Amino acid sequence: MRRTALATVILLSAGSTAFAQQPVLAAQPSTRGTAVVALEGPDGSGLTPASISIDYGQPHLRGRTLHTENLVPLDQVWRFGANTSTTLETGVDVTIGSLVVPAGKYSLYALPSASGWKLIINKNTGQWGTRYSAEHDLGRVDLIETALAVPTESFTVWLIPASPQSGKASGELRFAWGNRQHSTTWSVR
After folding, report:
1. Distance CA 175, CA 94 (A)
2. DSSP string covering 156-179, please?
3. For residue 94, how many other CB atoms are within 10 A of its CB?
């Protein structure tokens, strides 16, 4: 009887040690952010208002600098945020910069370089942010870069609507991180 009790204690101890050594998944350090613009009027189905949204992982500088610490390496495709891929979803056909983007869901990436940044709109969605494949690109858009007087600690994306008097729904897609801001236009087709 004593042997059975001792064997049980040893098995339970071994089991709890094995359980304690299992890796614990840490919380992802980057929060999620969403930029949304609701559009006036119905979408193509005529039933509900349409919107354009961008869902992204929001990395933070935490004392680091973008290019010198390879957070955003130059001349390499960058994941445009953190964690899972950044998702653009539009309920209507839009033009982003000069690129026609049909209604649907897309992943966003960026190509930073010393001569200027490009926004990449990719048809593959749902993947981890570093899983980029150029063969799925819908296209690339040149971005306007502006220096910021006060650095932005957390990567942030905005969809800014133009004034309603401008006619067709339009505005600016803007993002900032560190001491730079980048932007392009968007408009409903």
Report:
1. 18
2. EEEEEEPPGGGSS-EEEEEEEEEE
3. 22
Are the C-beta atoms of residues 84 and 129 closer than 8 Å to each other?
A: yes
Both tokens of residue 148?
């910021």
8 Å CB contact between 52 and 91: yes
Ranking 9-23, 34-48, 113-127 by mean pLDDT, the lowest is 9-23
Max mean pLDDT range (21-35, 56-70, 151-165): 151-165
The candidate with the shortest Cα–Cα distance to 76, out of 145, 33, 134, is 134
pLDDT greater at residue 99 or residue 82: 99
189 vs 91: CA distance, rounded Å: 12
Phi-psi region of 9 (alpha: psi -120 to 50; beta: other; left: phi over 0): alpha
Selection from 70, 96, 101 nearest residue 182 by Cα: 96
Query: Residue written as tokens 């006619």?
Result: 167
Nearest to 179 by CA among 33, 32, 67: 67
Query: Which residue would you say has higher pLDDT here, 43 or 54?
Result: 54
